[in-house]
Amino acid sequence: MSFTKYEPVRFRSPEYIAVWSQQVAATSCDISKDAREAMKDMAVSGYPNEICGLLLGRIDADGWHVSEARQVTNMNIERASDRFQLDPAGYQAVDRDIRGRDVEIIGVFHSHPDCPAKPSPTDLDGAWEGFLYPIVSVCEGEVLDIRCWEPHDDTQQFHPVLLTEAVQ
Ligand SMILES: [Zn+2]
User: Fold this and answer.
1) Ion ligand 1 contact residues with beta carbon within 5 A
2) Please, what are the domains in the chain?
3) In 3D, which of 35, 2, 38, 15 has the Cα closest to residue 119?
4) Distance 74 CA to ligand 1 centre (A)
């Protein structure tokens, strides 16, 4: 499969390149097999539209530990193929559901149909510092790549986060 085919010209523009840092990942995250598979399944079944959702888990000195991925409706209908907007009601429902449990909402994932797993300028606009942002690249209906990113307000960039295998 040719990668350049899935790197639209806009991803090579200065505006896009300025959004992500080229430095080596300083922080890491692990994502449980269940959460990983769930994100892939959602990305494939939502294709060619973007899907989005929330990650549940905990954060400590080692980084993010993701145990679960929950889909939330993408409210962006007009540009559903390349934009996402989390449904606030969906966010609240997940938030209510985990009350009393030993997990919190620690990240937002979304898919990039026929695009690389690199954040876009609009992703940066909507990103919350402290949250993990995995992007699932799904090309012609198949998952090519998952990459994780962390927004930094001071540099106005996403920094790469190393994705490691979860123990369980
Ligand atoms: Zn995006």
Assistant:
1) 120, 123
2) 41-165 (3.40.140.10)
3) 15
4) 12
